[in-house]
């Protein structure tokens, strides 16, 4: 496939509600083409991707292509209330974009309310002839996700319970379990496993994608060392590890060599229980899958090892430390020419709703989706927006950058929780981080990691830089679904003088009057 000439690859997605049982327990789901996960999009850089979406939900929806740059097509970024209005129930929309040099492992998902929690997700793989990763023989996408038996709008209502879940404001719903490529095991309800039969004495690229809503997933394969070679579409100098913790929305490629004894081995995806704020007695904290080689397709690993994973030999590497990630050919990030400072916090909103909802804030603004329009549609032609940060409509914190700049985000996380933040339309360099608030501590700009999703730990600071030269409105938000729904999002309005020239399809503008509710 990698050697194919650039072409147009077309997909038809039908979004609808179905009943499903990924881990053996029946639940309400929102899915594409009746599948969970949805169809994998596999393309080459330079290809054009055309996706026809038909919305059969009772609410509007939008599909986001995570990590892709969408240069010149910001209106196809798929972020409801920011780059488009939702696709109304019973209506359709065509996303039509090119890959613009992006290479690596990513995913697509609903970006409207908490819909992707209920199943609107899928892998998106972009190949290239010149990707700077070691050679490998085969390729396998491994989608990891936490799983809730409840329906996300109902869980969100619980999250917003006055006084908080279990009596503590901000307690996030604790998952019931998880899945590997859509299959999990909960109690005695399911004995199925995602399984793959590989060839012996080969090297396979496992593309790990956390498509979940809340917790990081620790991935490992019994008896095997993994070699990390990519993170969020950035090739990295190879790092040998025993396991990789993949935060929500992050991606890692690891090389696995099928050179141990012929047999079947447990894959493990363990939920990060450090994020749990109360006890969910039935939670399945580790999901399993099966990798095998040199044996028949129906061979399973030793069940005695299920709860007793074997140790790697002495001298084997430990878990991935993200500080060890170095981009291939990396060097210093450019000097910042535009600086933005903000804080992350979670607190009760003031005013008449005091003690009703515990909301997320960037500075003093808690984001709420606009109704009947989007920030791109309503503000792109507004010539009065000056460079700098402003809060519009009480709920839209927007930083405008109307000429190309190297933007530096200085972020203080004042919250007691970790937050996996994602920037749309760009990758950023991580040039600094540490405990406490930022007080001009020295930065590490020798060869900083370049990616699009990172974890900002509790009570720490982080310094990011990116080149703001991609016109449009781009979200920067926490990817924990409960936190984004509570307002943990702000927007960068890049080069509005250019985005004012976008040729946005008229039907997309017309859909705003009919979008209805996003949840």
Describe the strand arrangement of the main beta sheet, using strand numbers: 10-9-12-17-14-15
Structural class: mainly beta
Helix content: under 10%
Could you tell me the mean pLDDT?
A: 95
How would you explain this protein's 3D organization?
- It is a single chain.
- With 519 residues, the protein is mainly β.
- The protein is built from 5 helices and 31 strands.
- The chain has helices spanning 152-159, 375-379, 481-485, 496-499, 506-510; strands at residues 8-20, 27-32, 41-44, 48-55, 63-65, 92-98, 104-110, 121-127, 138-147, 177-180, 194-198, 203-210, 217-221, 226-231, 234-241, 244-246, 251-257, 263-271, 286-293, 338-348, 358-362, 388-392, 396-401, 405-413, 419-423, 428-435, 450-451, 453-456, 460-468, 472-478, 489-494.
- The strands form 6 sheets. It has a 6-stranded mixed β-sheet, with no helix packed on it. A 6-stranded mixed β-sheet has the order 21-20-24-29-26-27, with no helix packed on it. The protein has a 6-stranded mixed β-sheet with strand order 22-23-31-30-25-28.
- The chain is globular, with a radius of gyration of 22 Å.
- The model has no long low-confidence stretch (mean pLDDT 95).
Give a concise summary.
The chain is mainly beta and 519 residues long.
Topology:
Elements: E1 8-20, E2 27-32, E3 41-44, E4 48-55, E5 63-65, E6 92-98, E7 104-110, E8 121-127, E9 138-147, H1 152-159, E10 177-180, E11 194-198, E12 203-210, E13 217-221, E14 226-231, E15 234-241, E16 244-246, E17 251-257, E18 263-271, E19 286-293, E20 338-348, E21 358-362, H2 375-379, E22 388-392, E23 396-401, E24 405-413, E25 419-423, E26 428-435, E27 450-451, E28 453-456, E29 460-468, E30 472-478, H3 481-485, E31 489-494, H4 496-499, H5 506-510
């Amino acid at each position: 496939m990698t050697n194919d000439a650039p072409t147009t690859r077309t997909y038809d997605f039908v979004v609808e509600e179905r009943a499903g049982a990924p881990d053996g327990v029946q639940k309400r789901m929102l899915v594409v083409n009746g599948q969970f996960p949805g169809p994998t999009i596999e393309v080459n850089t330079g290809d054009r991707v055309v996706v026809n979406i038909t919305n059969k939900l009772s609410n509007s929806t939008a599909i986001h292509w995570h990590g892709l740059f969408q240069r010149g097509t910001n209106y196809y970024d798929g972020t409801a209330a920011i780059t488009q209005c939702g696709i109304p129930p019973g209506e359709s929309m065509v996303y039509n974009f090119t890959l613009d040099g992006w290479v690596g492992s990513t995913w697509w998902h609903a970006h409207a309310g908490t819909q992707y929690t209920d199943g609107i997700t899928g892998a998106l793989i972009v190949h290239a002839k010149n990707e700077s990763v070691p050679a490998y023989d085969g390729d396998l996408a491994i989608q990891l996700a936490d799983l809730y038996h409840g329906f996300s709008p109902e869980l969100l209502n619980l999250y917003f319970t006055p006084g908080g879940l279990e009596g503590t404001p901000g307690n996030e719903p604790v998952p019931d379990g998880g899945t590997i490529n859509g299959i999990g095991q909960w109690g005695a309800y399911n004995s199925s496993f995602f399984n793959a039969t590989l060839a012996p004495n080969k090297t396979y690229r496992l593309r790990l994608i956390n498509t979940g809503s809340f917790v990081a997933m620790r991935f490992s394969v019994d008896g095997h060392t993994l070699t990390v070679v990519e993170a969020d579409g950035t090739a990295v100098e190879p790092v040998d590890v025993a396991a990789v913790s993949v935060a929500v929305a992050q991606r890692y490629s690891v090389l696995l060599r099928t050179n141990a004894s012929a047999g079947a081995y447990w894959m493990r995806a363990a939920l990060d229980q450090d994020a749990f704020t109360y006890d969910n007695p039935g939670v399945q904290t580790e999901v399993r899958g099966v990798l095998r080689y040199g044996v028949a397709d129906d061979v399973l690993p030793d069940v005695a090892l299920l709860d007793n994973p074997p140790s790697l030999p002495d001298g084997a590497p430990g878990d991935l430390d993200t500080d060890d990630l170095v981009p291939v050919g990396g060097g210093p990030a450019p000097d910042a020419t535009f600086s933005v400072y903000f804080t992350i916090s979670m607190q009760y909103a003031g005013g008449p709703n005091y003690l009703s909802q515990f909301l997320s804030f960037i500075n003093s603004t808690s984001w709420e989706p606009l109704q009947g329009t989007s920030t791109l549609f309503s503000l792109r032609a507004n010539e009065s927006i000056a460079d700098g940060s402003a809060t519009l409509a009480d709920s839209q914190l927007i930083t405008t950058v109307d000429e190309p700049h190297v933007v530096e985000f200085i972020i203080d996380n004042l919250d007691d929780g970790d937050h996996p933040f994602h920037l749309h339309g760009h990758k950023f360099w991580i040039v600094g981080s540490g405990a406490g608030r930022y007080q001009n501590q020295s930065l590490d700009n020798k060869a900083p990691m370049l990616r699009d999703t990172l974890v900002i730990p509790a009570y720490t600071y982080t310094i990011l830089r990116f080149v703001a030269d991609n016109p449009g409105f781009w979200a920067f938000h926490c990817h924990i679904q409960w936190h984004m729904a509570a307002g943990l999002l702000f927007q960068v309005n890049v080069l509005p003088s250019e985005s004012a020239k976008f040729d946005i399809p008229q039907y997309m503008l017309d859909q705003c009057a009919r979008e209805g509710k996003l949840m």
